[in-house]
Amino acid sequence: xxxxxxxxxxxxxxxxxxxxxxxxxxxxxxxxxxxxxxxxxxxxxxxxxxxxxxxxxxxxxxxxxxxxxxxxxxxxxxxxxxxxxxxxxxxxxxxxxxxxxxxxxxxxxxxxxxxxxxxxxxxxxxxxxxxxxxxxxxxxxxxxxxxxxxxxxxxxxxxxxxxxxxxxxxxxxxxxxxxxxxxxxxxxxxxxxxxxxxxxxxxxxxxxxxxxxxxxxxxxxxxxxxxxxxxxxxxxxxxxxxxxxxxxxxxxxxxxxxxxxxxxxxxxxxxxxxxxxxxxxxxxxxxxxxxxxxxxxxxxxxxxxxxxxxxxxxxxxxxxxxxxxxxxxxxxxxxxxxxxxxxxxxxxxxxxxxxxxxxxxxxxxxxx
Length: 368
Known about the structure:
CATH superfamily of the largest domain: Dihydrodipicolinate Reductase, domain 2
CATH architecture of the largest domain: 2-Layer Sandwich
Strand order of the largest sheet: 11-10-6-9-8-7-14-15
Oligomer: single chain
């Protein structure tokens, strides 16, 4: 969705309330409290009153127990929705109906139909809506996208990405995470479309190799996804829940003229050198790996609201990545490739995906 803010006014600052103060919500609140240009943290809200009041005291803003009160506050221009995933769609719709511009953490919903209904309702409201696909704001990833699309790499024929957590999340997280392909893989699938174009086939394999709790939740903790793009190019994504050594996020795109590679950037630039070896620190999590990107995505959100700048990570982008994640999950379950059919809509590209029934009988016509 294009930004629908008023005329540009560099002096105006966006007043933002944060809904949900778990790990991601608190991180956004801390950024908004002083690290994001043209934004002020107006208030925070959380169902856990003790946690909410503590964060409010630390950041010097009001604590509002009821999120509906935040949405009714005329002094709040926008909200960050960082509550548990199951409430993202409902709160985003409520915020849109209240006229609040909304930044929503992914996923919008773990249900495809609910995601689509939410996006349609938000679209009708006319507010700015952005999803937390932070790599679209990281300078390294933006540079690769710009050079690839500008033709500097020639014809693109290979994409490779890795995203691995240092250690497994708590079992309580797994129940509402959506699983490997709708949680971890979503970012790499979004970048695949952004850099390489649309996807026509997904083949995913997964296993439980580091933590049996994933099997108890019908999930996997190690996965490999292969992609075939409309152009004929190929891609490989590897994802893991427990790498042990640290947080890994790296990618490469190869073209007929040149290639570009984004390494696993260390949290600081100091290199240790000792007899026989040299080393750099490895980030422990995404907040250490992408501190700038998380600030820039909120600055981009403010620019869309205040200046009418196009939204760089729209809900429709998130839906397309979600649909590819659904295809990966189906492929892993069926043990064979799943064909996807990208098609343009008024909002962006959507994907038709082979249904489970079609996979079971090997028939290409099944769609959802």
